[in-house]
Amino acid sequence: MNYVIVGASAGVGRALAYQFARAGHNLVVAASDARDLEATASDLRIRCGVRVETVVMDLARIDETALRQIEQAAGDLGGLHGLLLPAGTVSPDDTAHAASGEIDRLTRVNYLSMASVIQRLLPLLQGHPAVIVGFGSVAAMRGRGRNVAYAAAKRALESFFESLRHAFSNTDLNVQFYVLGYMNTQMAFGIRTLLPKADPDRLSRVVLANIARDTGVMYYPRYWRFINWVIRMIPWQLYKRLNF
Amino acid sequence: MTHSMAEKVYVSFDGGYSIKTQYQQPDRYRMLVDADAGGYARIARGGGYSYAAASFGAEGVTQEMGSFNRVIRFVPQERLIEVEAGITLGDLIGITMPQGLWLPVVPGYPGIMVGGCIAANVHGKNPARNGAFINFVEEIALFHPANGVTRVSRSANPHVFELTCGGYGLTGVILSATLRLETLPGSQLTRQRTAVGSLVEAARVLRELSDTNAFAYTFADAVPAARTFGRGFVYSGDFVPGSVSRKGGADTYQKMTSEKRALLPVSAWQGGLISRMFNTAYWTMEAMLPARQQITLFASLFPFAKKTIYFYLFGKRGLAEYQTLVPLDQAEGFLQELQRLILKKRPPALMMSLKAFRGRQKYLRFERDGICTTLNLIRSASTLEFLPLLDELVIASGGIPHIIKDSRLPGEMVRRSYPEYEAFRQALHDYDPARLYRSELSQRLGL
Ligand SMILES: Cc1cc2nc3c(=O)[nH]c(=O)nc-3n(C[C@H](O)[C@H](O)[C@H](O)COP(=O)(O)OP(=O)(O)OC[C@H]3O[C@@H](n4cnc5c(N)ncnc54)[C@H](O)[C@@H]3O)c2cc1C
Ligand SMILES: NC(=O)c1ccc[n+]([C@@H]2O[C@H](COP(=O)([O-])OP(=O)(O)OC[C@H]3O[C@@H](n4cnc5c(N)ncnc54)[C@H](OP(=O)(O)O)[C@@H]3O)[C@@H](O)[C@H]2O)c1
Questions:
Q1: What ipTM describes this predicted complex?
Q2: pTM of the entire structure?
């Protein structure tokens, strides 16, 4: 089968690309840097013997050309069976005082461009069994003084996916959303976390195993569902004093 | 932009040097090539299997290369493969073997990375036949902030190529390398075991077998006991013709790191008795096996892949590996003197090994015609008193020590033994007057 993975050059996306290619699926891999993409694509071809196309696109300034390229590459594979969107970015400057340019960038990469890519590829995903997989973050469970715009964008993304799931609930298009806890990738590098960072390879195995199932919203690792529930239950008077 | 850093404790594989230092784990080219690492001194790290602290140090930042582990180009018909420097040898062999190709020069553990092999110009199981790693490197993509990414080879920037192969990471970060592969005659080998009674006898048998076999090396008892010292086996072997497997080549192996190796708080090799028991058990078990056996290529290339317990048992205090290459005409005299010295000083030596070498000595590369002797000792106060005596014996025998194998090796010893020490130092400073890439090893050696 054929899948598009946006954000396949590193972290969770790279792990997903290997997992899916090892299972024999052809891929379109997208990210912002041609050097990483080309290296990953040639390695996937050599090790797994599958077709891999690359699309260099910066989600911070996605334009018509980039959207056309990804549409073209997906079409060239001869039918699209899934769109995985593990791209994402954070910023140390993402506080309540962040410059508007930074808020704009974080919102585009983490939400707006995702929505544009989905809209563009939707026609290729309909009329046959297919899947769209989004990736949120536990950072979005409740607003904090850090990761302000990132959390807002991820919450918007989660809502967008909920709407998609509702809209396509009686069709062949399966909409899945993973809310991720700390992952052992560059995004969390050097950050001390209270709970262990999860392995992206393991996550990618879970995603592949679930790809044809109607899983809805999944937490990974699963205990984050419980933590999410507890955090949401904390009364504001107490929550505002927490520093995390 | 500076790419993010964190701190951690690194330990040299022999346990002799450890320090908490800054590190990065870049996984995108822009983090390695476009970010400026804040003007810090820096050094690339491969698998971290060097006995010396070659890929970290007190100063600057360590750049872990493990994410750069992809195959960029593989043309089996041309017998060339271009790989990123962080690919492990186990991985590489697993990709080339099903295509009937292999790399004849690989060190004994599959987690070692191509960048580390180039930077230490490592040797394999038959250096008399195949020489060192440099012989199989066609081209390197090297990054240094002052020069950007440059392609270096025997024809393009040959002086940088010479400085980088066996240059201990001091010329910059090796991003990728094109390696020349050889046709694999088979993926099974016969291994012949020949018993020998002394080191001198082992060296003689080894020289005969090295020319006619795919691999040849010895293991010998090094416990200081007059009756048993130097007894051993010469292992030699060749391919079983037509046994190439087209299925996935790589075997599984026990994953060990320098830091994990040092986890046991005490050494299990305490005292001579346990070392003697180990040797006796090894000898008895080996002698019970048939002298001729069939083994896989993977097992022959990576004898330690499934025997990591040997290293763990040295514990936190660690081990000392002394490896030296002595000219052929001095080899017998050296081995006799070495035996005399060990039996007299009685350091906690465990085992030793010999290999025959052929090669041209240049800069700080561990390469020349001669016999290579490797001695493993428990790391203790008496070992640290014994090793300087061994340094002197090596100098007197016209030998060179393997810089990557000894975290203690004094800079002065390297200066005295390597004829081109000064030439290397000068060429390195001419190439990079700011000397940006630094490690504990480079500082200790005065480079
Ligand atoms: C069990 C075991 C068996 C061994 N057997 C052998 C053997 O048979 N023959 C032999 O010769 N050696 C042997 N060695 C030693 C080993 O091959 C060398 O120490 C080798 O350099 C280790 O490479 P590494 O990938 O672990 O790199 P590290 O130890 O992390 O680094 C080694 C050197 O390479 C440099 N380096 C690493 N990657 C890069 C890069 N991308 N760009 C620039 N510089 C880089 C580092 O800066 C450092 O100077 C053995 C070691 C062990 C632990
Ligand atoms: N890591 C965590 O702890 C954590 C926790 C919760 C949720 N998540 C979420 O999990 C997902 C995967 O994150 P990760 O940890 O794998 O992050 P990562 O290692 O930083 O990888 C992110 C991927 O997204 C791509 N990307 C980022 N910005 C881009 C842009 N502007 N244009 C195009 N591609 C871009 C990156 O490629 P380029 O940089 O080359 O463009 C890379 O391939 C993300 O959605 C993230 O928000 C992560």
A1: 0.96
A2: 0.96
